[in-house]
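Hi everyone,

Forwarding the result from last night's run.
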Amino acid sequence: MTAIINTVFLISFIAFLYFIGRGTLKFLTNKDTKHSFKYGLLSLLVSLVFMVIGIIFDPSIKSSSESNNYNSVNSNSTTSKESTDSMSQSHSSKSSSSKKYDFSKVRLGMTKSQVIAIMGKPTEQDTTYLMYGSDDLDFQDDKLFDGSPRNIKEAATKKEKNEAKESSRKRVNESELKSFAKIFGQKDVETLQKYVGSAYSSIETSQGMAYGWKTDYGMLYRLDDSSTGITHVYKDGLGDSGTQLYVGQTIKQKQRRNYYYYN
């Protein structure tokens, strides 16, 4: 069908050229050109008609047009899908960041695996922290010690204050204990023996006599080394089992005051 249309179009166009050429020649020789131009215009009209018909029935043009339409529709569909996916991802991200997490069951000292078992998969994580939305949980040696959730932050602050208070108390105790150790070590043996059973306890060792004194700041142990005449005072135990707080010469008797009378 397309071949016939093309052939007729070609013949009509050739006829148009022929009659136009013939009419032009007659015009130049002053002859009658009416019929030549008339047939030429008629041939041009026929060729134009068949050209339009050929375009309409040409499968390649139709296929190209359909392909362009398909590509256009497909492109619009792809753009729409990408836009939808982008909106979905944006919504998902926004939803994830705005999600409220319940940290009421999370406690200081928990490991990361214990926290994840309670809270579920974190939105972000590293060796030292877990993120749940905009909240972070901080770990040290795989133990939870701080975080931004209110209950975790309050617990961490309270623990820090208690540790500081305990550390201060220990420093005071250490200082007081050293003072008591000095007093204990400088007491004469006569006085110690006098109060054994009430204020002090005593025991004989291979190195010499050992005494114990329970103070408000801890237990003190005194060893009077009979071979060296040196007194050692320890806390928490005698010798290597304790910590030495005082060392000095053993005082065996209380120093007597001398009284002088003048006549």
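Residues 9 and 52 are 10 Å apart (CA to CA).

Cheers,
N.
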